Amino acid sequence: MTYQDSHLLAGSTPPYVIGHRGNPSVYPENTLDSIKSAIDLEIDGVEFDVTLTADNIPIVFHQESFKLDKASMALKRTSCNDASCWTLNLSYSEIKKIDAGSWFDHSFSSKKIPPLKDLLSLNWKNAHPFIELKDPFYWRHKENRDWFEIFAASLKPFFEKLLARNMTFFVLSFSIPLLKHLRNIWPDIKIIPLLWNTGLYSFTERNALKEIIGLSPSGIGIYELHAIDALAILKDALQGKNINTIVYESEYIPSNPSNIEKRKEIWQKLLSMGAKAMITNHPAELKAFISNSTLRS
Fold first, then answer.
1. Is 173 helix (H, G, I), strand (E, B) or coil?
2. Which of 34, 75, 169, 213 could share a disulfide with 27, CB 3.0–4.6 Å?
3. Residue 239 burial class via C-beta count within 10 angstroms: exposed 0-12, middle 13-18, buried 19 and up
4. Measured in Å, how far apart are the chain's first and last C-alpha atoms?
């Protein structure tokens, strides 16, 4: 397999604007409203998270950011990074009863966690899906082929319908073995491995970086918190490889004018250092910022 074209998206030029979990400064993240809103902004792409229910139904949800208040069947915004996470313990019939919006604002209490298949009914216009595959216990499954087979089987209807529509989409994951497994099934799938940025300094992670480059990915995703140092490392490692660097914005902050001015300073620095795309919590503001600058070549 040859390296991808230098531009992440054919027919357009960087930097690219990708909505993080949709348009999460306006709607509850990863809900259909959030994803629709991001698509309607006419940005380059929309990122969303996919995990599995107890009965292996793929849902659009970032389980590491929520716990469930079982009394009210409403999500609570809080970190959930251990085996107490409830996602894998509930069937889809139970999950579809959950209030997925009141944590954001009580006016969204009727919003639900969507099954992945519901995204097929959306008019994606010119936006491209960026599908981050989440496994709350991914450290258990790094080499677990049974788990990979289950995940791949659950994704197959969605992937193959996108392929049948000739849609360009990207699959993102921290699990390199999972991405390799999916590539064995769909050789032409566009992948974007994600790196824990602090790990770039370790011998193990640098070896992983060599492995990633050998997969000819469309890009490599890094987290904003360590992006300045990581971009410098990746600039040398990726020289001549035509692999795009994609920066995930840090956690959600309100879209008040003061915060957006701070974000503009960060956007300018990261994009001028070579980031080709931003996965942002503020897609409308970033789109306007790029349009009013000389960043897009």
1. strand
2. 34
3. exposed
4. 28
Burial 285-295 (b: 16+ CB within 10 A, else e): bbbebbeeeee
**Counted domains in the chain:** 1
Q: Which domain holds residue 246?
A: 16-291
CATH of the domain at 220: 3.20.20.190
d(CA 37, CA 108): 14
Residue 278 Cα to chain centre, angstroms: 11
Please check whether residue 296 is in contact with residue 290, taking contact to mean a CB–CB distance below 8 angstroms.
yes
Classified as helix, coil or strand, 180 is helix
Cis previous bond, 15, omega within 30 = yes
How far is it, in rounded angstroms, from Cα 268 to Cα 289? 9
* 273 CB-side CA count, 13 A: 21
In DSSP terms, 74 is beta-bridged to 69, 99
Tell me the per-residue pLDDT of 138-161, one tens digit each, with 9 for 90 and over.
Answer: 444 445 668 889 999 999 999 999
Q: Would residue 37 count as lying in a domain?
A: yes
Tell whether 9 is covered by a domain. no
For residue 120, being part of any structural domain is answered with yes
Name the amino acid, one letter, at 231: L
Q: Report which of 174, 214, 205, 210 is spatially closest to residue 192, judged by C-alpha positions.
A: 174
Asked whether residue 4 is domain-assigned, the answer is no
Residue owning tokens 């716990």? 67
- Are residues 189 and 130 in contact, defined by beta-carbon separation less than 8 angstroms? no
Residues ≥6 apart with Cβ < 8 Å to 8: 14, 16, 218, 219, 244, 246, 276, 277
Across the chain, mean pLDDT equals 85
pTM here is 0.91
Is there a contact between 173 and 194 (Cβ–Cβ < 8 Å)? Answer: yes
